[in-house]
Amino acid sequence: GQQVMQIPQYQHVQEGEDFTTYCNSSTTLSNIQWYKQRPGGHPVFLIQLVKSGEVKKQKRLTFQFGEAKKNSSLHITATQTTDVGTYFCAGRGNFNKFYFGSGTKLNVKP
Amino acid sequence: EAGVVQSPRYKIIEKKQPVAFWCNPISGHNTLYWYLQNLGQGPELLIRYENEEAVDDSQLPKDRFSAERLKGVDSTLKIQPAELGDSAVYLCASRLAGQSGSGELFFGEGSRLTVL
Question: For A35, phi and psi rounded to 5 degrees?
Fold first, then answer.
């Protein structure tokens, strides 16, 4: 079946360092979404990428969708303690089915 | 506007007991999802509704799990009997289908189940 793999599982950084998480799908996706889940909270939507090779920025966050629409990345520049949480990608397959990655848990040391 | 509402937030039961979770999606959202989230893992789809129709329940363990979405609005997920391995957070999400909006999933706060 369709799978979305996400790495790394954990990332510990010093405040001010950069952070990147990667997602890879076994099949071509129609789009990919990214979510952030704070400790004890629920996933909250960050962004959606639809086009092949698409790049979107939100302040210090940069999202990319691969040319083959099978991989994606989220890069955070100069992390802050408010970035702490788990970041999930969710690839959209056929119809309205979303396949979530296992998430990357980010810890930022002040 | 109210978000996705779930209850109860926490439930502790003994194994073999039944349990039910309730979800009220955002008004007008015709697509409703139930996800299971284990600690340190991503959400795993249990069932998806388009209005009142369950269009994808392939991951729902039908021997003990059941769900319904009467009238295509709120939904209930039931487990009977519960097993130790069912301890997890049960997340409900809704989505506005169609061309408008980004198609994002709006999640509720989740129902954390502990089976003793």
Answer: -130, 150
CA distances from A28 to A32, A53, A69, A98, A99 (A): 10, 13, 5, 13, 12
Q: Do A98 and B105 touch (CB under 8 A)?
A: yes
Residue type at A66? Answer: G
Residues 36-95 of B with CB under 8 A from A: 40-45, 48, 50, 55-56, 91, 95
Note the pLDDT tens digit of each residue in B4-15.
999 999 999 999
Q: To probe the interface with B, which of A30, A32, A42, A92 has the most B CB atoms within 10 Å?
A: A42
pLDDT tens column, A34-91 = 999 999 999 999 999 999 999 999 999 999 999 999 999 999 999 999 999 999 999 9
